Amino acid sequence: MSFIQTVYGLLLFYFLIGFLSFYFINRKKDKDAARKSWVKTLIYFFIINIVAGSIVFFPLVFRCISILIIIVGFYELFTLYQKSGYRLSRIFYSSVIILGVFSVFFFAYSGLNKEQIFFTFALVSIFDSFSQITGELFGKIRLLPHISPNKTVEGFIGGAIITLLLSLIHI
């Protein structure tokens, strides 16, 4: 079994755990909220698989997706600046510089070999998913309530532990 097949198998295993977790989480929610949660979960599942497929089978497509992500990031930043009435110029220009630096590194990352990109992508995806799951199951302490009110310390720790376990399995 190849490295990519192993990592993808682990990613699918984590999705299975995630789907089971969301089943228990959504049982406590009203029908409309549970339906929205399932739709979001399924969309996330498809996006992850589309991006994973582009990394493994069509690296040039992933490189194009990377460029699109960078363009959308700058667009969002300029839109926020416009909506602010062009206030807080120092913060805006600082943000443009920071985003520019990160964009250069992200674009360089998109050119690495597919095994490195895929493993990193799997880790980030699993961290994101399991931060949400553990946060919804056990979250009490808000991490940064003014920036992202639904993020919890427990979610961050849960996502980090699960991600660390996956990375150790790889070693």
Describe the structure.
There is one protein chain. This protein is mainly alpha-helical and 171 residues long. The protein has one domain. 82% of the residues lie in helices and 5% in strands. A two-stranded antiparallel sheet has the order 1-2. Strand 1 and strand 2 form a beta hairpin. The two termini are 16 Å apart.
In short:
The protein is mainly alpha-helical.
Sequence-ordered SSE layout with sheet pairings:
Layout: H1 3-27, H2 31-57, H3 59-83, H4 89-109, H5 114-138, E1 142-144, E2 148-152, H6 153-170
Antiparallel strand pairs: 1-2
How many structural domains does the protein architecture include? 1
**Distance, first to last CA:** 16 Å
| Mean pLDDT over the full residue set | 89
Strand content: under 5%
Low-confidence segments, ≥5 residues, pLDDT <50? none
Q: What is the string of SSEs from the N terminus onward? A: HHHHHEEH
Tally the beta strands: 2
Q: What is the rounded Rg? A: 18 Å
Count of individual helical segments: 6
Main β-sheet: number of strands, strand sense, barrel status? Answer: 2 strands, antiparallel
How much helix, percentage-wise, in residues? over 70%
The rough form would be described as globular
